TrEMBL record:
Protein's UniProt name: Heparinase II/III-like C-terminal domain-containing protein
Domain Heparinase II/III-like C-terminal positions: 387-585
Keyword set includes Lyase: yes
Keyword field: Lyase, Periplasm, Signal
Chief site of localization: periplasm
Record field: transmembrane: none
Localization: Periplasm
Species annotation: Ralstonia psammae
InterPro entries: Chondroitin_lyas, Hepar_II_III_C
């Protein structure tokens, strides 16, 4: 009964119009009445890109896709001059069975294939950008390679057949990468017929299912709206009547998505730092494309929302490395890898968005950030953006505290949209740009239940877990029930210390209140817990290192220390039943997991737990 009531509550929270869109889509595809089931298109014939005599760009081309590529920014995959097998996952060697099936006959999660993202990665066409860059720098062999690979891709992936046509967002990413390559080569207004045909058959795949994308209230909608706008605008240049309609629809949905999915303080609907980057890169490309094509700009309200999202990510980004807190879902997605900046370096994206929407430059000394602008023809802004400060984004439950060399992030439950992780009151702590208390990440969407539970569940976060269960019941792979609501939120305030507090009660009566004080050389966290049945376990997920655990106050206090001067002191005003250094896991990249030390501190009675993380200034 509780499960059914939880499902009903989630359905109401998701919104009946969204549910109607999603159900209507699935039923119409299954019954064969959706237009997408009746699509047919010829394979485009001829070259996709012409040779160019334009001068070289004053920025280095990427080194990837020459002899090696990296799946999800992490896993090295050897490549050659010949196109790859588009239906084999190079990380597992598994090939999609019967790839000639219509895409709608292929299951979402096929146990024989494993994670389909390993198949999709090459078909996102990152390599189109790499080849186009090197062709623009005068390498004619790369232009030939670009045309050969594209011809092979569309022959092997005949329109609307096989796994690489299964997802409208994947098709949208291809549209954006193809349009970006055309911009790099100066061939937007001189696009060859085969390229225009390739764009059109992609938009014909995206348009009939766009309502389903919008029902997700996530980056599927932002990506597909952008593809319709970009591709439609492009085709309209050549008098294509459908192009005008697609461009108008894309513009409408772009306005709608920014208004609905980006909060006043800039939080994106997915509560994920990496998906925030994906959305922001998408909107940045829309702005670059609009300026390039000379079509009317989007509204002032749209620009205002995207600027808020830009500032949100700027606050999250560590200036010296570009790294960010590993908070929220992360599937390895990255648009427009136009530089050799590592996957976890967010500075190129922030620098681009800040120049476009804030008319400021964020990282003037970062070569990869400046190269991003150069490749896209965006001039450097004259003004310097202020250094990242503090932020309370109550629109999504994020508070960023700063004091001296320290940054602390508190995640509290403000769920207007579906949460992807049970991470209420999680805390990240960064000292001098290095993560000291950290989030587990994601690992994989298609893996064993124990890993889905670990990385997305309460156990994978720096918070308190009650009675061995998640803070919210998991209803499905991507859906939690009984969404938490923040209570007693105290605003971010002060300078030394900086303070913040929030609380929640779960559906079984457990209560957790967390208050933070960030000083120049220590972070103090007080957790008041009650209402649980048997046990409350506080976890601190630590940086790898040689930690030593000692008893400090018999029965209540313990000290964890490392040679670099970092110390974590934990105590309670009730008896402690367990305190130990356990082995945990974190995933900084999709499909990658490594061990880290985790302090587990357990009590059996209601009380207050006090944690103090110290470092040398």
């Amino acid at each position: 009964m509780n499960f059914h009531w939880s499902t009903v509550k989630v359905a109401l929270a998701l919104g009946l119009p969204n549910i109607a869109r999603a159900v209507g889509y699935r039923v119409s595809v299954r019954l064969g009445i959706n237009k997408v089931r009746r699509l047919h298109a010829d394979v485009p014939d001829g070259a996709f890109f012409a040779s160019t005599n334009l001068p070289a760009i004053d920025a280095p081309a990427v080194s990837s896709w020459s002899r090696e590529a990296r799946w999800f920014g992490r896993w090295p995959v050897q490549v050659s001059d010949a196109p790859p097998d588009w239906f084999t996952n190079p990380l597992t060697g598994v090939r999609v069975p019967d790839p000639a099936r219509p895409w709608w006959q292929i299951p979402d999660f096929d146990s024989k294939v494993g994670d389909i993202k390993g198949i999709w990665e090459a078909s996102r066409l990152d390599w189109v950008l790499a080849f186009a860059q090197r062709a623009r720098q005068g390498d004619a062999t790369e232009l030939a390679r670009l045309n050969v690979w594209l011809a092979d891709w569309i022959r092997q992936n005949a329109p609307y057949v096989g796994p690489n046509w299964k997802c409208g967002q994947e098709a949208s990413i291809r549209v954006m990468h193809l349009s970006c390559a055309a911009a790099i080569l100066g061939q937007v207004r001189e696009a060859l017929p085969a390229l225009r045909a390739l764009i059109k058959l992609h938009l014909e795949r995206i348009a009939p299912t766009v309502q389903y994308a919008m029902a997700q209230d996530n980056n599927h909608g932002t990506s597909e709206a952008a593809a319709l706008f970009v591709g439609g605008t492009w085709l309209a240049m050549f008098g294509d009547a459908q192009g005008f309609a697609w461009a108008a629809g894309g513009r409408k949905w772009l306005e709608n998505r920014a208004a609905r999915l980006i909060g006043k303080q800039g939080t994106f609907s997915q509560y994920s730092v990496n998906y925030h980057r994906l959305m922001l890169d998408t909107f940045s490309w829309v702005e670059v494309w609009q300026r390039l094509c000379g079509v009317p700009p989007l509204s002032a309200a749209w620009h205002e929302k995207v600027l808020a999202a830009t500032r949100w990510l700027h606050v999250m980004t560590e200036s010296s490395s570009g790294d960010v807190p590993n908070v929220g879902a992360n599937d390895g997605a990255r648009l427009f890898p136009l530089t050799d900046a590592p996957y976890r370096d967010y500075r190129p994206s922030v620098h681009l968005a800040m120049a476009l929407f804030g008319r400021q430059h964020a990282y003037p000394l970062c070569e990869s950030a400046r190269a991003m602008l150069t490749w896209l023809g965006v001039p450097e802004a004259a003004a310097l953006a202020p250094a990242p400060g503090m932020l309370q984004a109550d629109d999504g439950g994020f508070a960023v505290m700063r004091n001296g060399s320290a940054m602390a992030l508190l995640r509290y439950p403000r769920f207007r949209f579906r949460p992807s992780q049970a991470d209420a009151l999680h805390v990240d702590l960064w000292i001098m740009g290095q993560p000291c208390l950290r989030d587990a990440g994601t690992f994989s969407y298609n893996t064993e239940p124990r890993w889905l539970s670990y990385f997305g569940g309460t156990q994978g976060h720096n918070t308190v877990q009650f009675d061995g269960r998640d803070q919210m019941p998991r209803l499905s792979r991507f859906l939690f029930g009984n969404w938490l609501r923040a209570e007693a939120v105290e605003p971010l305030s002060g300078s030394d210390p900086v303070t913040m507090a929030a609380a929640y009660s779960d559906d079984q009566g457990a209560f957790h209140q967390r208050s933070l004080q960030l000083h120049t050389n220590y972070l103090e966290v007080r957790d008041r817990v009650n209402g649980f049945a048997e046990r409350a376990v506080l976890r601190w997920r630590l940086a790898p290192g040689d930690w030593t655990l000692e008893s400090d106050e018999p029965g209540s206090g313990f000290v964890l220390s490392m040679a670099n001067g970092h110390r974590l002191h934990v105590s309670a005003d009730v008896p402690v039943t367990r305190c130990e250094l356990a082995e945990g896991w974190e995933s900084l990249y999709y499909l990658d997991k490594t061990t880290i030390p985790v302090l587990e501190f357990e009590v059996a009675h209601s009380g207050t737990l006090i944690s103090r993380y110290e470092w040398s200034t």
